[in-house]
Amino acid sequence: xxxxxxxxxxxxxxxxxxxxxxxxxxxxxxxxxxxxxxxxxxxxxxxxxxxxxxxxxxxxxxxxxxxxxxxxxxxxxxxxxxxxxxxxxxxxxxxxxxxxxxxxxxxxxxxxxxxxxxxxxxxxxxxxxxxxxxxxxxxxxxxxxxxxxxxxxxxxxxxxxxxxxxxxxxxxxxxxxxxxxxxxxxxxxxxxxxxxxxxxxxxxxxxxxxxxxxxxxxxxxxxxxxxxxxxxxxxxxxxxxxxxxxxxxxxxxxx
Length: 255
Fold this sequence. Notes:
Elements (H helix, E strand, L loop, with lengths): L1 E9 L9 E6 L4 E8 L4 H19 L19 H23 L7 E10 L2 E7 L3 E6 L2 E4 L6 H7 L5 H6 L19 E6 L5 E5 L1 H4 L4 H8 L5 H14 L6 E9 L2
Antiparallel strand pairs: 1-10, 2-3, 3-4, 4-5, 5-8, 6-7, 6-9, 9-10
């Protein structure tokens, strides 16, 4: 499969800085969006440290197989690519811990992260927090990740409706993150790509104000992927731009 991509990021209309980070390395098949938390510059540091650490481990394991020595146990139920991502996320958490231990002003920082690692017709997905991965296939937009957030847990329990969750004062409270504490529980799965797919990785600055139906309409639009990214950010800012916005769009085609 051939994957083309575009990425764009914007601080939004209410934040003085942009604490999101991203990576798009088609040579590695690696695509990441991370949304930092922590105040001052700490959120920006957390997201960048996580992206750099994940990328470094993926680079270090190019051509790896299940027979190499892994820093964490290899899980046979998962593909090599999924193991690479899961381990990379756990190492990123350790790296954040080390940064906080060395710099007092960084204590308390954390970040969400969602990543795809593409290998031929397959892709591995890893996810912690409330940055999302969507797939547009055959005109249908599906949210592939599930938010690790307080409001999402309440929606699943039937205590909140999706509409209530969108406006709840605790909608930004995440229940999992890369925070330098105990090894994080990373959601990991193996996926199959199809020609014509469009994948979107994004921070919550997009979907917190732009409904999924509008996201679908924009992703289905024509023009270069860079234009689609610009339209998504414009739509989020039109909705008030309350948070940083990062969007990474992938197009999958036959080789």
